[in-house]
Each structure stands twice: as C-alpha cells, then as structure tokens.
Specification:
Blueprint: E1 16-18, E2 25-27, H1 42-45, E3 57-59, E4 65-67, E5 95-96, E6 102-103, E7 133-135, E8 141-143, E9 174-176, E10 183-185, H2 216-219, E11 224-226, E12 233-235, E13 240-242, E14 249-251, E15 264-268, E16 271-275, E17 280-283, E18 287-290, E19 298-302, E20 307-311, E21 318-321, E22 329-335, E23 340-345, E24 350-355, E25 362-365, E26 372-378, E27 383-388, E28 393-398, E29 405-408
Antiparallel strand pairs: 1-2, 3-4, 5-6, 7-8, 9-10, 11-12, 13-14, 15-16, 17-18, 19-20, 20-21, 22-23, 23-24, 24-25, 26-27, 27-28, 28-29
Main location: membrane
InterPro entries: 6-blade_b-propeller_TolB-like, EGF, EGF-like_Ca-bd_dom, LDL_receptor-like_sf, LDLR-related, LDLR_class-A_CS, LDLR_classB_rpt, LDrepeatLR_classA_rpt
Membrane topology: Single-pass type I membrane protein
Length: about 425
C-alpha cells in the first residue's frame, strides 16, 4: 500500500504576501521591490502597476526605486543601469579611475583601493604592501587570505598562480582546471575557447585528450553529462553539487559561497534566500543598502589631524573637530545609541569624545596615554577599549574614562588594529 500525503497550502499573515503558484508566504517588504522573490514572480507582476518612487528616490527605467544620491555616482545601481545614463560627470583635475570616477594624485599606488574598481592600484612598480598583505603583479594589495582561494582578486590573476590545486573544491556549477586552483563555469568547458591556465579545458593533443561524451554512459550521471577533455563530466542543477561518487547530486549550502549575500543568508533545498538587517533594504536580490529614510549613512574618519565626516560617496565632507595644527587624530570609534564620537590624539596624548553635531566636546582620558593607535566601542555594555601601541597593551574604561583597567599586557608586538564583537565576547 502506498500512502501519499499532501501538504496544506499555508495561510499567510497580514504582514505577508502569498505567491500565486507555490502558495509560499513572503514578507510584504519583498513585494514590488524590483526583485522576484516568488518562483513565478507574482510579487512583482500582479500588484505593482502604477508604482511610484518617493521624492528622495530615483526611478529606474524598469521601475526600480533607488536613493536619489546614487544617481550619476559611477556605480550602476539600477538593474538596467539607467541611473548612470545622461550624466554630466565633473572633469577630473588630477587622476581618473577606469570607471570614470575621480581621485587625487597622492591616492595613486598608495596601497589602498580608492577607486571602486581598484584601478588606482594597477601597474604600480614600487613595493608598498604591508607585511600582512600580498602584492599582486600589477601592484595591487590584497589580504593574504585571498591568495589561492579560486577568485581572481588581483585582477591580473597573479594571486591564483602557483597554487596547490587541491586547496579547495570548486563551487556548484564550476569545473576544476587540472593542475590549477582555477575554477570555471561548466558551460565554458569544451566551448572552443581556452579559459583554464594552459587551456586544459579544451582539446589537448599533447596530453592526448579530446573533448567528448564517450564516458557519459559509464558515469550514469543523475542530472546531465557535459563534454570534457576526459570524455565527460557529471554536473548538477543550480544549488546542488556532485557527490563523492562523481554522479549523484546532493544539496549544497549556498550560504557557504563567499559574497552570495551581503548580510543574511538562509539556505534552502537547491537554492538560498538573501535578506538584510534592520535599517537596510535589498537591491538586485543580494545587495543590502542603508535605508536613507532613517538618515543618510555617514563616514567618520581622520585626515591625520582633524576629525571629519562625509557621506559614503566621499561627498559633503565637513570638519567635525578641527585640530588647528595642534593635534594629531588617529583612532576613531562611534557609539550609535549615545551619538558619541571617540578619537585619540597622539600629539596631545589624550582621548576625546564629542557628539556628531560637534557639541559636548569632552576629555575622556588625560593621563597614562602614550600612543593610542586605535579605539573600539562595546555598544552593549557601554565600554571603550583603548589600544596603547607604545605600552603594548589594551585597556578598557567607561565612556567618561572612569574605571579604567588593563585587559591585555602580554604577547603584543607593535599592535595597531583593534576590533570588538561584544555579541560573542571577542576582542
């Protein structure tokens, strides 16, 4: 006897939208957001006629809404790229990125990616990468962890040369190039164009390998068999990967793929779902951007003397605390709940705080401060962490400087960076 069970169609709450074909419930926030979240796309087709964007948004030609500040910023935010059409870009007075954006001469080959496309660090001849970074052949600096990770982070491929070919498996839908760490899409194998180093994805008369399907019958692939120089290779549909038996398909946790979602990722059988944290909205199905209705995102930084603020595109720069030639601001930290900016000054040998509007300037630490290189804020317990580079120690105190204690005073050699995650208790 065979017993079948039929799952009941879910009923959606008042805060959810019911997809027409599958009956799946999705958040109302995903309806008419320019991205198809239902399999049948009904969240974007049935209820979005006449949709208009708010006054502080730009309407893309396909109807997508993006913040108006993203218009003509050399970054294509609309799915149809219409936010970068008919732009009157300013003439660059010093240097120009490959994508047309402007940058200053001192930013060229300084080891930092000032252009969004990294072109300000291309073709640099001098060694400038710090010890914890890898210098690409084109002069660009990347973290050592990006070397031999199957991604062309350098742009010239030099970070993927001379690697152990067994350092990591390829992602679903990819084919591992023999004798290399490189992975290419399955569709590019035996397509007549060499994509792997040495062209090992195509016919190789020297190695006596010819693209064919002659091994497919023996492989008995669960899904499909693709041409390969070895006589065929099994591959699986999106969201699945080939099992160890080289023929079966098993679910793959898409969320393990670096960069597949900007912030939050939920794995599902054969697929995944991206979402954003509170205060952010999603674009292009995986990109999270700050919700400008809650206030424009701001950057807080120092220029070596003053404490500065600017928008995330580097415009509308203003001086929050001027040094007037009498200070050298270094470490900066911000506490959102109290709207407090903290910074260290290695000239006056003090740590200060101020509100983001420039009010309530205070001295937090004035004694036993030698060379504070960095600060970090515990936003849960309202504590300030202080990195003393000269004394090689990490201190902690209240936001007003009281109850200062030393947490780490051993095994620190020329410390500079300080990162804190109070949710897991790590420094």
């Amino acid at each position: 006897m065979v017993v079948f069970s039929v799952a009941a169609t879910p009923s959606c709450s008042s805060q959810e939208f019911k997809c027409v074909t599958s009956g799946e419930c999705i958040s109302l926030g995903f309806v008419c957001d320019g991205e198809e979240d239902c399999i049948d796309g009904s969240d974007e087709k049935r209820t979005c006629d006449g949709r208009t964007c708010s006054p502080d948004q730009f309407t893309c030609q396909e109807g997508q809404c993006i913040p108006d500040t993203y218009r003509c910023d050399h970054v294509k935010d609309c799915l149809d790229n219409s936010d970068e059409n008919n732009c009157n870009y300013p003439h660059c007075t010093e240097k120009t990125c490959a994508n047309g954006a402007c940058y200053e001469q001192p930013q060229h080959c300084n080891g930092l990616q000032d252009c969004r496309d990294g072109s300000d660090e291309f073709n640099c001849t001098t060694q400038h990468c710090p010890t914890h970074q890898y210098q690409c052949r084109n002069g660009y600096c990347i973290p050592h962890s990006f070397v031999c990770d199957h991604w062309n982070d350098c742009g010239d491929g030099s970070d993927e040369e001379g690697c152990d070919s067994n350092s990591r498996d390829c992602y679903p839908g990819e084919w591992g190039c023999p004798g290399s760490t490189a992975c290419i899409p399955v569709g590019k194998v035996c397509d007549g164009q060499p994509d792997c180093p040495e062209g090992t994805d195509e016919n190789n008369s020297t190695a006596h390998k010819t693209c064919s399907l002659e091994q497919c019958s023996a492989l008995s692939c669960e899904f499909l068999c693709h041409l390969s120089p070895e006589g065929g290779a099994c591959y699986c549909p999106d969201g699945f990967t080939v099992a160890n038996d080289s023929r079966s398909c098993v679910d793959y946790n898409d969320c393990q793929i670096w960069g597949i979602c900007d912030q939050l990722c939920e794995d599902r059988p054969g697929t995944h779902r991206c979402s954003c944290a509170d205060g952010y909205f999603m674009e292009q199905g995986h990109v999270c951007k700050a919700n400008v209705s809650a206030g424009m995102p701001q950057l807080i930084f120092t220029n070596g003397g003053d404490v500065m603020m600017a928008d995330v595109h580097g415009r509308f720069v203003r001086t929050l605390v001027p040094s007037q030639g009498k200070g050298y601001a270094v470490g900066v930290a911000y506490h959102w709940h109290s709207d407090t900016v903290f910074w260290s000054d290695t000239y006056t040998k003090k740590v200060y705080s101020v509100n983001s509007n420039g009010a309530n300037l205070k001295e937090v630490l004035t004694t036993a401060v030698q060379s504070v290189q960095n600060l970090a804020v515990d936003w849960i317990n309202f504590k300030l962490y202080v990195l003393e580079a000269t004394m090689e120690r990490i201190d902690m105190c209240n936001f007003d400087g009281s109850n200062r204690v030393t947490l780490v005073a051993e095994n620190l050699q020329t410390p500079h960076g300080l990162v804190l995650d109070p949710t897991v208790g790590w420094v």
